[in-house]
Amino acid sequence: MNLPDLPPPLDPAPPTAPGPRPAGEGLVEWVRTSRAAASYVLMGLSALFLAATVWLAVRSTRATTAEAAPGEPPAVLVDPKAGDYTAAWVGTLYGFLVTAGVGAYLLVGPPPAGAAARTEARVAILAAGGLLGLGLMVFGGVFFWRWSDSLAGWLDKGERKQMVYVVAPLLMVVAGAGLVFAAVQPARAEERHNPLLRRLVYGSNLGLTVLLLLLVLVVANVAVAKKVPNKLDTTQTGFYTLSDGTKALLAKLPEPATLYVIMPMSEARWVNDLRQFAYEVQDASRGKVTAKFVSPNYDQRELARLREKFPRIDRDALGVLVAVGEDEKRNAFVPFRDLFEWDQRGFGGSDDPKAFAGEGRVMKELRFLADNEQKPVVYFTQGSGELALSAGGPGAPTLGGSAAQLKAFLEKNYLDVRPLAFPPDAAAEVPADAAVVVVADPQSPLPEAAAGAIRKYMTERKGRLVVAAGAAPGPGDRGVARTGLEDLLKDLNVRLGDRFVYSYPTEEIPDHRVVAVILNPDSQNPIAQAFGSELRAVLVSGVREVEPLTAGPAYQATPLMFTLPGLRTWTSADRLGAAEAGQLLVEARQNREVVRRIGLTQAARPVAAAVSEGATARAVVFGSGAMFADRSADRGRAATPITYDLMAAALDWLRDKPPLPTTVEAKTYQEYLFPEPAAVDTARMVWFPLGLALLVVAGLGAGVWVIRRK
């Protein structure tokens, strides 16, 4: 039988090069062929994790006892790093569970045959590596958050030893992400045809992406929070906002400082306010001040250390310890009772504090410590009827009155206030230790020797001067008495007026001798800026004008205070009684020439000026001394006249220190009452948000429907 011709055989296909070996295939084959060895490795790792867990757990609960006073039980001190140890042993326990679980499965589980053995090896690698990597990332983020204060110490203060507490958590995150990525690679060889591995691969990728995104947000927020103020004061009164004087002081601190805030862990408002204040100070100082919080309940070891190092801390005291310098040898303790203002029952009563006054108290101590605990000497001249500094003896009150309360206030703010009486000869000289000389309300001209000594102090020694010279009557109550410093003030580009300033009587101010004065709201001088809108109009008598002259080549004078705008004022060359002043004002209503002669106007008159030489403060001139006297001080602010703060701010500015008022910073607590239900706009608060939400949902649904239809 003849067979049909068959086609010639096909040429054999040329051999093809083997494809690339799947990633991690060597590890897969080792786990598949050495299943027991792999399980032993994992069990060994689990034993190490377990040992670390036990050791860290013991460290987290370890406590010691501190010596106590006789008759008292010893205090139990908890390790301040107990929280770190707790987080660490939780992490090692997690590692133990993962490695022990996968190792036990490989050790006791029945080995599959064929291709299933290779799939099982890939699952084991993905489970062990992926879970360990994800855990490493999570706990790296936890430690970065717990050690976030080290970021400021490293970047702002240059403390390199703090770098490890920043870099180590970040390395944990990077290592964890790398471990997850490496564990996923062997499973990719079967992700197309194996549903289980596909789900595990996609799930691991999703978890890795979510964790990386979350950790990036955490790291970014922590880093930004350490460099940028992250608190917005939404209170109407700016309760949590530091004053400009405080910010300026913190910006110029020459040395690092620490605020140890000793207070219990509580949700009480006073605790929150104190904590918020400490954070504000830390942020405003840009790394110069570090706030540390010590709880008497949970940080007993740290509290015992502080009490041993700083004996100023009372055993059971709460408050703020201010420590300056690397060695913290200069320190002061502000008790809790001094950080707040209380009602008449005072500290320890049943009521809450009525105002927070901690900013002024803490900043006063911080400034004093930053000045190396040196009290600047401020001399008040005596001998020409100036305000006396004591109630009796050589400095007894004169015709000008007493400034004993001002002296006590300034000394409380760490100034050394001394009287200065010049000898009546050419040997008169300002003492060498004088930081500032104050001439407060002289009633007669300073002797030529005293005026010459002050001129020499200002010109040759570049001294600092405060002149508070009101319009004192001259001989026979005619004219205004001279001070003897007119020529010196003129050289400083300031003209001291020679007329009495009176006000037009009103219901609020019926006495024509009383004038309302206020700080210049447009002044850029730090004295005015330190008070802001806090210094309201002050009522004083015996006022004269203080006019800044044209700026000269050396000295620049700027207006610091004015009479209250809108208040009608006028001037007279002589001191007038009520009857004389009333008759003159009657004539002014009938004769415009009298209006021009007495200068009756509603415009503000300058009554104080600040003098600087370039960027250096040199003098402050007030057209009233009575505002600083005991008998005429403004009593509107509790027990401390606000004009005392004005004098203190002027002395600060002249000493090249940021003016820091102490009595204007108390933040009064106010009770917020919810409005009555009838006053609530229900449509705006309920129906409008609900309608907007329904509109958004409907819009999204419509968009999805349109896309699906396409």
Short recap of the structure:
The protein is an alpha+beta fold and 710 residues long.
Q: How many domains, as an integer?
A: 4
Strand order across the largest sheet: 10-9-11-12-21-20-18-15-16
Beta-strand content: 15-25%
The biggest beta sheet is recorded as:
9 strands, mixed
Structural class: alpha+beta
Q: State the total count of DSSP E strands.
A: 22
N/C terminus separation: 67 Å
C-alpha Rg, in Å? 39 Å
Average pLDDT level? 79
Q: Which stretches are poorly predicted, pLDDT < 50 over at least 5 residues?
A: 66-73, 228-238, 346-350, 393-397
- Main CATH class of the largest domain: Alpha Beta
Q: What coarse outline follows from CA principal-axis ratios?
A: elongated
Provide the descriptors you would attach to this structure in a database record.
710 residues; alpha+beta; Glutaredoxin; Rossmann fold; 4 domains; 42% helix; 15% strand
